[in-house]
């Protein structure tokens, strides 16, 4: 069962420790009551105003978006791989399984794009994550493949989802947020 991706660097000591429970504000307490005491929340919660704004945006993409869970997790795991973000990878492998990704697919998300026989619609999502990572835009060919599967809201959301998780990976990697014990 794939958990650690070989592309991920070994964890380093955190630059900012997660907030202790006694220092949590009401927003962080509410999130923890729903999602659990994840290090991402207790670390980003050190900047209360930014955390509250980020939480709204992130929740839209993860909980209230138009993309299927499978598409969402394909994009997030591939972005975690491209960003070398061990935290996102460890957190989203179980979520990917819940969304229907097989262990073979999860392993393939950690490798070369064409090393796996992706279904065309899945290939387009993984290729989009790679192209955005490598070029900052999508080619007409990948856009056309995505547009066959997603409506215009889904197209916008996919690009925003990938960009959001790239930005989050920057923060998680730089702050050295440690993977949670449960993931």
TrEMBL record:
Question: Which GO terms fall under molecular function for this chain's record?
Answer: peroxiredoxin activity
Question: Would I find Acetylation among this entry's keywords?
Answer: no
Q: Pfam families given for it?
A: CMD
The residues covered by the Carboxymuconolactone decarboxylase-like domain are 49-131
TM segment ranges: none
Q: Which domain of life is it from?
A: Bacteria
Q: Which UniProt keywords apply?
A: Oxidoreductase, Peroxidase
Q: Does the keyword Magnesium apply?
A: no
Would you tell me the protein name for this molecule?
Alkylhydroperoxidase AhpD family core domain-containing protein
> Per the UniProt entry, what species is this protein from, by scientific name?
Thermomonospora echinospora
């Amino acid at each position: 069962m794939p958990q650690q991706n070989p592309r991920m660097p070994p964890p380093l000591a955190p630059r900012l420790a997660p907030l202790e429970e006694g220092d949590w504000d009401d927003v962080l307490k509410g999130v923890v009551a729903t999602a659990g005491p994840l290090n991402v929340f207790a670390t980003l919660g050190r900047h209360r105003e930014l955390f509250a704004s980020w939480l709204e945006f992130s929740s839209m993409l993860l909980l209230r978006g138009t993309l299927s869970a499978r598409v969402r997790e394909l994009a997030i795991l591939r972005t975690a791989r491209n960003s070398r973000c061990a935290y996102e990878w460890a957190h989203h492998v179980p979520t990917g399984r819940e969304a229907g990704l097989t262990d073979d697919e999860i392993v393939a998300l950690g490798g070369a794009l064409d090393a796996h026989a992706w279904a065309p619609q899945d290939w387009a999502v993984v290729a989009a994550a790679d192209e955005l990572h490598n070029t900052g835009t999508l080619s007409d060919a990948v856009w056309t493949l995505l547009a066959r599967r997603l409506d215009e809201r889904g197209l916008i959301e996919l690009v925003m989802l990938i960009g959001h998780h790239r930005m989050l990976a920057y923060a998680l990697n730089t702050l050295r947020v440690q993977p949670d014990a449960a993931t």
